[in-house]
Automatic annotation (TrEMBL):
The gene is POFUT2. It is an enzyme of class 2 (transferase). This is GDP-fucose protein O-fucosyltransferase 2. It comes from Sparus aurata. The keyword Disulfide bond applies. The lineage of its organism: Eukaryota, Metazoa, Chordata, Craniata, Vertebrata. Gene3D superfamilies: 3.40.50.11340, 3.40.50.11350. It is found in: Endoplasmic reticulum; Golgi apparatus. Keywords: Carbohydrate metabolism, Disulfide bond, Endoplasmic reticulum, Fucose metabolism, Glycoprotein, Glycosyltransferase, Golgi apparatus, Signal, Transferase.
Length: 427
């Protein structure tokens, strides 16, 4: 332990807190990392660049599941958290939004109670440098499903798309690597994969023996068991960072007359102890709205309402549920926002100052919006938006009656307006 402390100190890299503690207080077993009896290996991953924040959160669940499978069968795998950044929707001007560690958005201790995870910078320190032994670029099968029959399979195949990595003079591969320019890969190959995340386990255990492996285009893999116990364990462990929850709670108290005690939404810092009964949460005296616009309206989708249509629905829900306040989370642009304010002057929004935005970043603001929507007495979201889906899950964790959660706006002329599915937590 002292040796690894010396190593991270001399490299002038961030020493994991646990390491500092275990050296300072060796008698406190609590802070000591678990004894690692097997070969330590690292799983890294990345996702197709255009994918948004909330789909990426979903891919994390798939990767955590794969790591659990791997750990059951021998080696001591650790999941390396891919730094956030360069997201298509995160375009607040003049703020630096790459190389953001997960700790800015999520509680690391909560994630770690589910599966061993480390930040990318910690990986660099432990690994002795920014080198990844093997990158596997996942892709589908060039021939599609043969005979129209679905089967699970994984094979080494020539790359179908142009490789997003190029060899440098020393023969290393350079690529995006979350904006860490100094990162290099020793080897990059393409693998066609069709199936659930854990089909990669035999490949990672048998075909590959190097220490660090990165799966690029990890969204190619499907959930091992969507909405099963394992899915929910990981989802529940994705607790928002405390500072974001506090800002959301302060906002609720100040503008929405909403506090956990009165609303029956008391949250346990330890997610493994959180098991709220469905219907036990009451929520704050306001309507929560997620109104996804931008690319959702550019395509003139039938299932997305006009602003007028949305406001009509909002008014009717407020009346029905006797709520005189409404909180709106939206990605609407300036023009639309103006129109919305005209149509719904009483709406409450979380609008950070420039300084706050610099601290919280677009991701932090999105989380605060989700947190406030998650605490509303009644929620309505946008059809097939992963942003809305993550709010559903958060409300499920808090113990809301499903009737107050699984609601969405209908398009103005939509005939069959199917409502979102209720996914129950498996504890
Ligand atoms: N603050 C805030 N940001 C939003 C809101 N709606 C969308 N966004 C932003 O737009 C992004 C796109 O929504 P996401 O749901 O994350 O994107 P996605 O994963 O592609 O999923 P879809 O919504 O299904 O497109 C979010 O990550 C936010 O950055 C909102 O209500 N509030
Ligand atoms: C893994 O190794 C097995 C046995 O050598 C081989 O048949 C298979 O094609 C390999 N799979 C991949 C994805 O490399
Ligand atoms: C690159 O990785 C592939 C797949 O693991 C392996 O077959 C190949 O030998 C490696 N190439 C080099 C140069 O190490
Ligand atoms: C806040 O809510 C409480 C009880 O739910 C109520 O008694 C109080 O009048 C409310 N305050 C405001 C300012 O609306």
């Amino acid at each position: 332990t002292t040796a690894s402390l010396m190593r991270c100190l001399t490299l002038l890299l961030l020493c994991p807190l646990s390491l500092l503690f275990s050296v300072a207080f060796p008698h406190l077993r609590f802070f000591q990392p678990p004894v690692r009896s097997h070969h330590l290996r690292y799983l890294l991953y990345d996702v197709n660049p255009p994918e948004g924040f909330n789909l990426r959160r979903d891919v994390y669940i798939r990767m955590a599941s794969l790591v659990k499978t791997l750990r059951k069968e021998g080696d001591d795998w650790v999941l390396v958290l891919p730094p956030w950044g360069r997201l298509y929707h995160w375009h607040s001007p003049n703020i630096h939004q790459i190389r953001i560690p997960w700790g800015e958005f999520f509680s690391l201790t909560s994630l770690q109670a589910n599966v061993p995870v480390i930040e990318y910078e910690e990986f660099i320190a432990e690994n002795g440098g920014p080198f990844i032994d093997q990158v596997l670029v996942l892709q589908n099968y060039a021939e599609g499903w043969t005979d129209g029959k679905w089967e699970e399979k994984v094979d080494r195949r020539p790359c179908i798309d142009k490789l997003m990595y190029s060899k440098d003079k020393q023969g290393y591969y350079r690529g995006w690597f979350w904006g860490f320019e100094e990162t290099r890969a020793r080897n990059v190959t393409c693998v066609s994969a069709q199936g659930h995340a854990s089909i990669m386990a035999p490949v990672l255990q048998k075909n590959i023996t190097v220490t660090s492996v990165m799966l690029d285009r990890a969204e190619t893999l499907l959930h091992d068991h969507y909405a099963g116990k394992d899915y929910w364990d990981t989802r529940r462990s994705m607790v928002f960072a405390k500072h974001l929850r506090i800002i959301g709670d302060d906002f609720r108290a100040k503008y929405l007359n909403s506090t956990d005690d009165r609303d029956y939404t008391v949250y346990s810092e330890d997610w493994t102890r959180m098991k709220a009964k469905l219907g036990s949460a009451k929520g704050g005296p306001y309507l929560g709205v997620h109104l996804r616009r931008k690319d959702f309206i550019w395509g003139h989708r039938e299932d997305v309402p006009s602003l007028k249509g949305a406001v009509k629905k909002i008014r009717s829900l407020m009346k029905k549920h006797k709520l005189d306040r409404v909180f709106v989370a939206t990605d609407a642009d300036g023009e639309e926002l103006k129109e919305l304010k005209k149509l719904l002057p009483e709406m409450v929004r979380f609008e950070p100052s420039i300084e706050d935005l610099e601290l919280l970043k677009d991701g932090g603001v999105a989380i605060i919006d989700q947190w406030i929507c998650a605490h509303a007495r009644f929620f309505i979201g946008t059809s097939v938006s992963t942003f809305s889906f993550r709010i559903h899950e958060e409300r499920e964790v808090l113990g809301f009656d499903p009737k107050t959660t699984y609601n969405r706006f209908c398009g103005d002329t939509e005939k069959e307006c199917e409502q979102p599915t209720h996914w129950k937590i498996v504890y």
